[in-house]
Amino acid sequence: MSIITKLSKELNIDEKKLIPTIELLDGGDSVPFISRYRKEVTGGLTDEELRNLLKRLTYLRNLEARKEEIKSLIDGQGKLTEELVAEIDAADVLSALEDIYRPYKPKRNTRGSIARERGYEVFANMIAEEKNLEEILEAIKNFKIEHPEDELEVEEIIQGAKDIEAENISDSSKIREMIKKIVWRFSSLKTTKKEENHVYEMYYDFEEKIKDLKFHNTLAINRGEKDDVLKVEMVSPMDIIISNIKSTYINSHTLEELKTEIIEDSLKRLIMPSIEREIRSDLTQLAETASIELFGENLHNLLMIRPLKDKNVLALDPGIRTGTKASAVDKLGNFKEHDVLFIAGAKGDKTPVEKKLMGLIKRNDIDVIAIGNGTASREVESFVADFVRENELNVSWTIVSEAGASIYSASEEATEEFPDLDVTVRGAISIGRRLQDPLAELVKIEPKHIGVGQYQHDLNEKNLDMKLHDVVETCVNTVGVNLNTASVPLLKYVSGINNTVATNIVKYRNEVGRFNSRKDLKNIKGLGPKAFEQSAGFLRILDGEEILDSTAVHPESYEIAKKLKGTEEATEELAKELGVGLFTLRDILEELKKPGRDPREDLDEVFLKSDILTIEDLKIGDVLKGTVRNVVDFGCFVDIGLHSEGLIHISNLSKGFVKHPKDIVSVGDIVNVEVISIDIKRERVGLKKLK
Known about the structure:
Layout: H1 3-11, H2 15-26, H3 31-37, H4 39-42, H5 47-76, H6 82-90, H7 94-101, H8 111-117, H9 121-128, H10 133-146, H11 154-171, H12 173-186, E1 188-193, E2 205-209, H13 215-226, E3 230-235, H14 238-249, H15 256-303, E4 313-317, E5 324-329, E6 335-341, H16 351-363, E7 368-372, H17 377-390, E8 396-400, H18 405-409, H19 412-417, H20 423-436, H21 438-442, H22 461-479, E9 481-482, H23 488-491, H24 499-511, H25 529-535, E10 539-540, H26 558-562, H27 572-578, H28 582-593, E11 623-632, E12 635-639, E13 646-649, E14 670-679, E15 684-689
Parallel strand pairs: 4-7, 7-8, 9-10, 13-15
Antiparallel strand pairs: 1-2, 1-3, 4-5, 5-6, 11-12, 11-14, 12-13, 14-15
């Protein structure tokens, strides 16, 4: 079966659509561009569907390349047969392919290879063929006569033959496949305590069937083992495994006892250690893949949170010893001024601090106060709440995650933007801006530092970075980018634009002035015709020479768009008349109805506070409103106004069965919750989601 046919069946995509889609991908067209502007070719495949296609295509191509490589290697040994070629061609995963190749793979000096070098393979074959023991002993006697230099005893020669057979059993792809199936079905992973560490307390005496292991269990066990806190072992039904091997390897009672010894040795010494490593690796890969997908979904939802538009923001980055850094930013995110407020830990008269805060609010016409959720945020929030209430100010506030703000503040981008400001002030500005436009600000931070994942520091860094890059790219191109205000970190995620071109765009703005037309992009060094094609539709110019430049309509469709004035409905007849695909026609009309519309405007508004809570204020049964901050395998964390987020366990997300929390909630969701448990000492609050 060809790769195209296989992909068509697996992904349920017509081959007639699949072939030109792959040609676009191979030709260097980006996923966002193909998804948005080549729907007629793909049949309307989404970004996610295209990325899955690309990922699977790459895997299958690598698989085919490895098949040809293995055939060549075996052929070089003079051992390639038609049957073996057929077996190799039939392998549909890399692990099965490597199992087929295992007997032909060059081995280091093993007990079996040493025995082969000494010429004992003939006796191993006799054992395999179940010759009588007397016949085998006679053959060994003749061998010793013919090889007087071999001073080994008969028992040692038989042991050498057994070692060869043990390796033969271990190298059997069919036996290994059979054992893997048994292990996946019946084996358990067991953990016991090596050292005290309360973080891993639930795994001090833990055992779970491999097939039932939760992904977060796997990652937690891996970390506990790495930290040398947990001892991990795989418990397998050896009686079932031995019985299954015997049924295929032993045909008579002639050498049953001897062959049983060989089976047991092969299992203990060769097969089970390697299969256990392989299964552990597979478990880890499955858990990592799921966690990376969840991380990506959380990040997507975070980046796509509705921006807080047309609000002047005062950002507070709480601190104790060095004070709370306060930075005012206007409605467009422009920095206005900063100050230091000694709120947390301060004793005595707070009048000077209150005067400073009032001055910042009045001078900058502040609408919202954004408070970072780091150290001392609880004390700062309490102060702000009392201050707003006592002065009857028309000001709201909210808690904003500081994750990654310190990394951004020390970055090259931040230094270039604010060369004269301290890193702490830059961090406060970032907190304010991420409330105004999460997407535009958070793209400046490496995605893995944003803090919406699970065990992200334990995951494959390359795979994680790739996934998060794809998520950011999808979000940026879904929303579109203002060409005259976008930063380099934001621009470099636009389809067809790399970091160098993004830098050149900003340089052009600074030297020449604003862009008045998408055509001006052709003046950018490094941005050729291909890059223009890929990027133009995602770059917006507001109040430019061409009104369509403010929309997602691609320049290649401008003439068609201008013919559609007053058109309400996309029809096949109209599409045919204009010489355009129905998908494209629909998209153009949708854009013309709401030109330049931000798709995030359809989402929930940001939850702003006008009151304050402490954990001591809470009581069981309280009903509150909160914002989902993170979704994990076992539930979700909700900001209800406390320093620490409350947890809705998966069992409390719905009355019915919940397969995964992400099926019920997403990062950024505004939810109504009921308090069901309070642990003041550990600052933990248990919640239940209400309808």
